[in-house]
Design goal:
It holds the Pfam family CorC_HlyC. The chain is α+β, with helices and mostly antiparallel strands. The protein folds into two domains: about 400 residues, Na+/H+ antiporter like fold (Up-down Bundle), CATH 1.20.1530.20; about 90 residues, Uridine Diphospho-n-acetylenolpyruvylglucosamine Reductase, domain 3, CATH 3.30.465.10. It is about 70% helix and about 5% strand. Strands 3, 4, 5, 6 and 7 form a five-stranded antiparallel beta sheet that branches. A two-stranded antiparallel ribbon has the order 1-2. The protein starts with 6 loop residues before the first helix and ends with a strand.
């Protein structure tokens, strides 16, 4: 009797499932050590590859490109579904600037550094800058979830919205510079017009289809769940298939699928919050599976022995990006919006690079750009350096710059940040000044909440601080954009002029 061997099914499945399982367990422990969860999957893919113990030769860049794009679409959809309109109050304007002007500035300065370090043609150097110029949604979303750090609303919303919106600009710059590097001479005015038209088309179709289809699908989903009452798993599949359809349709007609799927998730999640809430847990699982699969596959593509040949200049490019290009871009975008210096420093440092630069580095390979494999190797080193250095130091940087909020269940930490007592925001500021002997305010009709908002000249968030005479006032509670409670810490001076902090009893 003949029996059919199923080794072709069992062995690959056993290898893949065991690799994912071990990577997940290792990732949980790495997160406790402050390392990026995704770094483990990247390393696991490398170990499975041709230079590792696995010895698997994998060079299907087209498949990796396909998987990377689908995975990013799933991640952006999940991020959009979880982003509430309220966060746009403080994060939209700075995030838009960072996702457009910031990406261009970062790409240009990184390209300048690559031109100097590598001695490349300026077009190829700028192409490398565009590839690594944007932050990565997968890396930012996962680290903010697993770091255990509670950031103030302005910083958290700016980082999340930026990472969800900046992919279209990075893709546009990459494609435009590939065209510049490979095409024959084109008259400058015609080339500039074509680039501007392509940019408008990317953003225009992305916003239009993402918003319109999100609006329509929100009504359809509410009706469908009311009539059929599907479970959370089925709802998640509905969301996933609809989001991927929006991504594919927008990409097919020449728009930015990344922008469309993020905006689609945003509109759908806010217009139909009750209908999608049961599906969010399953969507979280899909997003993590997408991230794990994408990083495993990208790690499998990397040949470490090849990457070592360009290690030093690649580390130089990473240093230029992290220490020069990103900080300059963030400062140019956020300083006019009156962001506190400590928040500018933190946002500049947490410009995490992840799968997006590696996926974008596949573009030159598919387009046949000369020396395209070098782009891939350098992008990989830049991502690895970012995850190891910036990702691992996120909690430390948040505490060091003062953008981390205390745990609400830790009274001692709350007192250290906000002081031992608080007052309602409708308390007259003039009365506080008179009682404590602070400098007088110009308008005696102002409440302490109104004074705070007018003085800081930006939408207030929990944790904002202002100094007035010997006192440090901080926003302790905000609801719907309005300050409700203000914490006060008073610093007295002793006879020798030394500052001593005292906080009166309530």
């Amino acid at each position: 009797m003949m029996t059919m061997s199923l080794d072709f099914l069992a062995l690959p499945l056993l290898t893949a499932s065991a690799l994912v399982l071990l990577s997940l367990v290792a990732g949980l422990f790495s997160a406790r050590l402050g390392l990026s969860f995704l770094l483990v999957f990247l390393v696991a893919g490398m170990l499975l590859g041709e230079d590792g113990p696995g010895g698997v030769l994998f060079e299907d860049f087209r498949l990796a490109f396909w998987v990377g794009n689908v995975a990013l679409a799933v991640i952006l959809l999940d991020g959009g579904l979880r982003t509430q309109y309220a966060t746009f109050r403080t994060g939209l304007r700075p995030a838009l600037l960072l996702a457009t002007v910031g990406v261009v500035v970062s790409a240009a300065l990184t390209g300048l550094g690559a031109w100097w370090l590598l001695g490349w043609d300026w077009r190829l150097a700028l192409l490398l800058g565009a590839i690594v110029g944007s932050t990565d949604a997968a890396a930012v979303f996962s680290l903010l979830q697993t770091s255990g750090v509670r950031l103030n609303e302005r910083v958290a919303s700016t980082l999340e919205i930026e990472s969800g919106l900046n992919d279209p600009m990075a893709v546009f710059l990459t494609l435009a510079l590939i065209g510049l590097a490979t095409a024959a001479e084109t008259p400058a005015p015609a080339g500039a017009r074509a680039m501007l038209l392509a940019l408008a088309q990317q953003f225009g179709w992305g916003l239009l289809l993402g918003t319109g289809l999100g609006w329509v699908l929100a009504d359809g989903l509410r009706w469908l769940t009311r009539v059929t009452r599907p479970g959370g798993g089925v709802r998640a599949l509905l969301l996933l298939s609809a989001g991927l359809a929006v991504f594919a349709l927008t990409t097919w007609i020449g728009g930015s699928g990344f922008l469309a799927v993020y905006v689609f998730g945003l509109v759908l999640g806010n217009r139909s919050r009750g209908s999608i809430a049961p599906a969010l847990q399953a969507m979280d699982g899909y997003a993590w599976m997408a991230q794990a699969g994408m990083f495993l596959l990208l790690g499998l593509l990397v040949t470490p022995t090849e990457a070592l040949r360009t290690l030093l200049p690649a580390l130089g490019v990473a240093a230029v990006l992290m220490a020069v290009a990103r900080p300059v871009a963030v400062w140019l975008c956020l300083a006019p919006l009156r962001f506190p210096p400590r928040e500018i420093v933190f946002i500049a440092w947490v410009g995490l690079r992840g799968a997006v630069p590696i996926v974008l580095a596949v573009f030159p390979l598919m387009a046949g750009v000369e020396g395209a494999k070098t782009f891939f190797n350098i992008a990989f080193v830049v991502v690895l350096a970012s995850l190891l250095l910036q990702g691992a130091t996120l909690p430390w940087a948040a505490r060091r710059t003062g953008v981390a909020l205390p745990d609400r269940d830790d009274p001692a930490a709350v007192r250290r940040v906000f002081g031992d007592f608080e007052v309602p925001a409708d308390t007259p500021m003039a009365a506080l000044c008179q009682f404590y002997g602070w400098p007088t305010v110009e308008d005696e009709r102002l409440t302490v909440g109104e004074w705070f908002r007018r003085t800081c000249q930006r939408p207030p968030v929990e944790g904002d601080q202002l100094r007035w005479g010997p006192a440090e006032l901080s926003v302790r509670r905000v609801r719907a954009g309005s300050i409700e409670r203000v914490g006060i810490r008073i610093e007295d001076t002793d006879e020798d002029g030394n500052g001593t902090t005292s906080t009166p009893a309530r």
